[in-house]
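Q: What would this chain look like folded?
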Amino acid sequence: MAGLIQEMAPAASGVMATAKPEGAISLAVRRSMVLLAVVGALWAILAWPAYQWAGRDALVGLSLAAIMCFFPGLVVFVMTASVPAGSSKAAGVIVAGSGLSKIVLFAGVLIVQSVLPNLKVREFLVWVLVFYLATLCLETVLLLRRPSKADEAGRA
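A: My prediction, written as structure tokens:
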């Protein structure tokens, strides 16, 4: 805790050593809202084809897949928002977040398969794959994209 306070304290030159908390929170919230919008839109686009293909169970599987892929992405955005872009810690936090999301997703698949064994490939696993790939691409784009002027002002 003391190390975090020291990092957040102004440096001798009067410039913050790391991101301002408001800017980091704002960036995490914006990224999370984009992720939520994309996951929601993808769910809405896939709901009817899923229902036609595999019935009501597919809607359950589709919903579970969306939730299981959204929350790890949310955690990654919160983790990375507190680390200054371009720092040596940033890459480590991104890799750790990616690993965490894979572990959570794999554990979630195992839990869902044991609790709801009627959800097989058509009803669940294909939707996990679709949502995982979509959220992974979106997270990568949002994390590697250069910050906008507003982001830079909040982080400076």
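The radius of gyration is 19 Å.
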